[in-house]
Design a protein that fits this description.
Strand 1 (45-51), helix 2 (58-73) and strand 2 form a beta-alpha-beta unit. The protein has nine helices and eleven strands. The chain is 40% helix and 18% strand. It has a single domain (42-297), classed as Alpha-Beta Complex (2-enoyl-CoA Hydratase, Chain A, domain 1). Residues 103-153 form the Peptidase S49 domain.
């Protein structure tokens, strides 16, 4: 006759065995996931660097440049995918990121993958890439500049840094500086993408945003595809058949990241931090700012 107590004990033992096996399986999967995002690992790796700042600032640009420099100097990383979701930001930060990507692309294959938006400074960051993929619904482009100047009459008119400074008002100065960067931005786009673009310089300078499919048709991007396609492309460019994938996110795309951006330059190599002096200015943004009652929009195009 079967002992009920023995049968119950066997059932419990079997149940615990199943739980332990499942825990081992889950633990193994978790271990693999953590390993894929680790900085240390086997050679022949493709690094996926996420650039998703809500607003590129001088500070976030510096952080991104430092991360890209580390990727460039890491011998275990053979190719890089930039996963971009950024509407742009400050000119200085955008310029720093562009220079860092440009330097990286000179040493390793770089493929860009536009997730949601690569506009203005976000697009500026992607254009040195060897290839730009975009999803069909992403927004790509916006090659221009927005600048604003205060209209607050309480600002003393006698504040001048030199005797001749009163010959042009703040709006005139901002227009001139915005026009200077607009031309610089256009020059970079035409130099980097001129062979692919199906539109002329004047049309590019209209600062329009295009949905992914249209962006590919016009040459602002190269092909429709997601991040997995971009990873495979980057690996092929580096002649990798077996490779690891590491994930990096140097900046936060949330509200904390936006509030933390001070616009200051911190601990960036000179090689990654070149910005033409005439392009520096806090009032230039690579996305359309919310104009308050004390702001006059100088150039209604976003960079």
């Amino acid at each position: 006759m079967t002992n009920p107590i023995d049968e119950h004990a066997k059932t419990l033992a079997t149940s615990w065995t199943v739980i332990i096996v499942l825990a081992a399986i889950v633990g193994g999967v978790g271990g693999m996931a953590l390993q894929s995002g680790s900085d240390s690992g086997p050679d022949n790796a493709v690094a996926v660097v996420t650039l998703d700042s809500m607003q590129i600032t001088g500070s976030s640009g510096d952080t991104t440049a430092k991360e890209l420099r580390q990727v460039r100097q890491n011998d275990s990383i053979d190719a890089v995918v930039l996963r971009v979701a950024s509407p742009g930001g400050a000119i200085t930060g955008s310029e720093v990121q562009y220079r860092a990507v440009k330097r990286l692309a000179q040493e390793k294959p770089v493929v860009a993958s536009v997730r949601d938006v690569a506009a203005s400074g976000g697009y500026y960051t992607t254009i040195p890439a060897d290839k730009i993929y975009t999803t069909p619904g992403a927004l790509v482009g916006s090659v221009g500049v927005i600048s604003s100047v205060t209209k607050n009459e309480k600002v003393p008119s006698q504040w001048k840094s030199a005797p001749d400074k009163g010959t042009a008002g703040p709006a005139d100065v901002s227009r001139a500086r915005a026009a200077t960067f607009r031309e610089s931005f256009l020059n970079v786009v035409m130099n980097e993408r001129g062979d692919e673009l199906e539109v002329d310089r004047e049309t590019v300078g209209e600062a329009k945003l295009y949905a992914g499919n249209r962006a590919v048709e016009l040459g602002f991007a190269d092909e429709i595809g997601g991040v997995e396609t971009a990873i495979q492309d980057a690996a092929e460019r580096a002649n990798l058949s077996n490779y690891d994938v590491t994930y990096r996110n140097p900046t936060s795309g949330g509200l904390i990241g936006l509030l933390a951006g001070s616009g200051s330059a911190e601990d960036v190599d000179a090689e990654d931090a070149f910005v033409a002096p005439e392009l520096c200015g806090k009032d230039y943004l690579a996305y359309a700012p919310q104009a308050g009652p004390d702001l006059e929009v100088i150039m209604n195009a976003s960079c």
